[in-house]
């Protein structure tokens, strides 16, 4: 899957979720998101992220990002979150054998 396709899929997922939550929410709803970083050294978006502010203003959804390490470490982290019954609301799976 190309980077553009992944970005389009993520955007579609966010739009779908925001539609389900309602565009006119009185209070921002937190949505936890875990993604593998395209650049392993890139940090998660900060609280003042411009795109995050636009999403929050238009949809009432407050995105809380966790960046997963690449490779087996990311798979192990997702597996640990699943075992602890603490999976994020939206997450990326690169290893289909994980679940």
Shape: globular
Low-confidence stretches: none
Secondary structure category: alpha/beta
How large is the radius of gyration? 14 Å
Distance between the termini: 20 Å
What topology, given as strand order, has the largest sheet?
2-1-3
> Roughly how much helix do the residues carry, as a percent range?
40-55%
> How many domains make up the 3D coordinates?
1
The total beta strand count reads 3
Signal peptide: 1-28
Keywords: Signal
Protein name: C4-dicarboxylate ABC transporter substrate-binding protein
What is this structure, in a nutshell?
The chain is α/β, with parallel strands linked by helices and 99 residues long.
Structural commentary:
- Helices cover 41% and strands 18% of the residues.
- With 99 residues, it is of the alpha/beta class.
- The protein has one domain.
- It has a three-stranded parallel sheet with strand order 2-1-3.
- The two termini are 20 Å apart.
- Keywords: Signal.
- This is C4-dicarboxylate ABC transporter substrate-binding protein.
Produce the secondary structure layout:
Blueprint: H1 3-21, E1 29-36, H2 50-59, E2 61-68, H3 72-83, E3 90-91
Parallel strand pairs: 1-2, 1-3
Keywords for this entry:
C4-dicarboxylate ABC transporter substrate-binding protein; globular; 99 residues; single chain; alpha/beta; signal; 3 strands
């Amino acid at each position: 899957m190309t980077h553009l396709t992944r970005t389009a899929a993520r955007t579609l997922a966010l739009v779908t979720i925001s539609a389900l939550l309602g565009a006119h929410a009185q209070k921002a709803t937190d949505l936890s998101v875990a993604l593998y970083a395209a650049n392993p050294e890139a940090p998660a978006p900060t609280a003042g992220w411009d795109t995050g502010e636009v999403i929050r203003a238009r949809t009432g959804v407050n995105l809380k990002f966790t960046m997963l390490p690449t490779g087996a470490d990311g798979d192990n982290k997702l597996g640990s979150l699943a075992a602890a019954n603490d999976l994020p609301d939206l997450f990326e799976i690169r290893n289909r054998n994980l679940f």
